[in-house]
Known about the structure:
Elements: H1 14-65, H2 85-94, E1 110-111, H3 123-126, E2 137-138, E3 147-150, E4 159-164, E5 167-172, E6 189-193, E7 208-209
Antiparallel strand pairs: 1-2, 3-6, 4-5, 6-7
Amino acid sequence: xIHGSRTRSSGFTLIxxxxxxxxxxxxxxxxxxxLGVVRERGKAMACLxxxxxxxxxxxxxxxxxxxxxxxxxxxxGIRGDGVNEGNETLLACLTTEQGGPFWEVHExxxxxxxxxxxxxxxxxxxxxTIRTNALYExxxxxxxxxxxxxxxxxxxxxxxKYLSEFGVQDVRxxxxxxxxxxxxxxxxxxxxxxxxxxxxxxxxxxxIVSWKSK
Length: 214
């Protein structure tokens, strides 16, 4: 009796499927961390660009009002809770209709991490375009408030508190930047983001700062 040769059945065997799954798993293990790095790098670039936009708004604001927004809410007549005050004041001032607004508000860029409110509408204090008493902050790409300090507070032992996703961060003015002996933003302001780790590193580590070389 003549036996015909057996032809291999079409499709994958279990072993072949397991090999394919293993290869895909290996590739994902290599690619996913890389994608995460690329994503964070993109956020860092977006953050720096936004800081530059805030600086442009501040320059225009100062040209009209002859000063920059204060570091605390008391500077605009509001008794605050001592948290995120520089950022809250920054937003209230840059959205004023007195010569402005100097900053276009996008709801997805606003947070209120400390959930505080003013006694009255923000517009009653600075003629802001924000028609609510919620004391919002401008958020960085990680949804944490930017730190903002007025230049007059930089040379002092000024301290502030900011609330990020990792709790209250103690903040003080940065007295030395990229160049030794030169205080960044002296006479103007300092702005920085806590970066991807959400922790205040005083302008170091992954913090993204306004005084970085342009």
